[in-house]
Amino acid sequence: MYYKNHEEFIRNKMIPALFVGITIAITIFLLHYFYNLVIPIARFIIFGSFASSAFLLFMEPENKSSRLMTFIRSYIIAGIIGLIGSLLTYYINIYYSVTIVEFILAVSLVSLRAEHPPAMGIGLVYVIEKLNIYSIIFVVLGALIIASLDKILEKFVYIERRFDKNYK
User: Fold this and answer.
1) Which of 54, 5, 27 has its CA nearest to residue 145?
2) Is residue 166 part of a domain?
3) Residue 168 resides in a domain
4) Coiled-coil segments, which residues (predicted)?
5) Which residues lie closer than 8 Å to 48 by C-beta, 6 or more apart?
6) Domain enclosing residue 135, as ranges
7) Distance CA 49, CA 87 (A)
């Protein structure tokens, strides 16, 4: 997209990019207590999902998958399916469990119109963690922090678009 002036570029692209970093930094800082209670590989997947979600929410706000309610619904759906799917690991190989959970999760997200790609990582985390209560708290708190920061920080960007009658 071509910007008519530097102010529009800074307000609509650079500030949201800065907010992505701020959001992840605050999320990591606030979740530090639970950080050591979650398996290392799961931590990286969770933060990868959080960072991807923050990027979508701030950098692509017009995108259907970037709506706040879509973000929240997708994480709830991923959590439920991932938790139920984690029980499979007691009966079948973890790789098969991950495959089944990710397939069901993808179909569910599309069927329920909650397509938010980073939620796929959350389903994977719950299979790896096998009903670890700390991972549940970690993801729920992280999602709440990101949603709260999105509502707070969105007031600083996209002002021109909100008042533009051609903006949908």
Assistant:
1) 27
2) no
3) no
4) none
5) 118, 121
6) 7-156
7) 22
Q: What distance in Å separates the CA atoms of residue 4 and residue 1, rounded to the nearest whole number?
A: 10
Give me the average pLDDT of each 10-residue run along the chain (168 residues).
69 84 86 71 82 89 87 92 92 93 96 94 87 80 90 69 48
The residue length of the chain stands at: 168
Tokens of 135: 């991972």
Locate 143 and state its tokens. Answer: 């999602």
Residue 161: inside a domain, yes or no?
no
13 DSSP assignment: I
Nearest partner of 161 among 49, 40, 13, 48, judged by Cα: 13
Count up the domains in the chain and report the number: 1
> pTM of the entire structure?
0.80
The secondary structure of the chain, three-state, reads CCCCCHHHHHHHHHHHHHHHHHHHHHHHHHCHHHHCCCCHHHHHHHHHHHHHHHHHHHHCCCCHHHCHHHHHHHHHHHHHHHHHHHHHHHCCCHHHHHHHHHHHHHHHHHHCCCCCCCHHHHHHHHHHHCCCHHHHHHHHHHHHHHHHHHHHHHHHCCHHHHCCCCCC
- Helix 133-153 to helix 15-30 angle, to the nearest 10 degrees? 150
Q: Are 108 and 8 in contact (CB under 8 A)?
A: no
Does 167 map to a domain? no
| Other CB atoms within 10 Å distance of the CB of residue 117 | 14
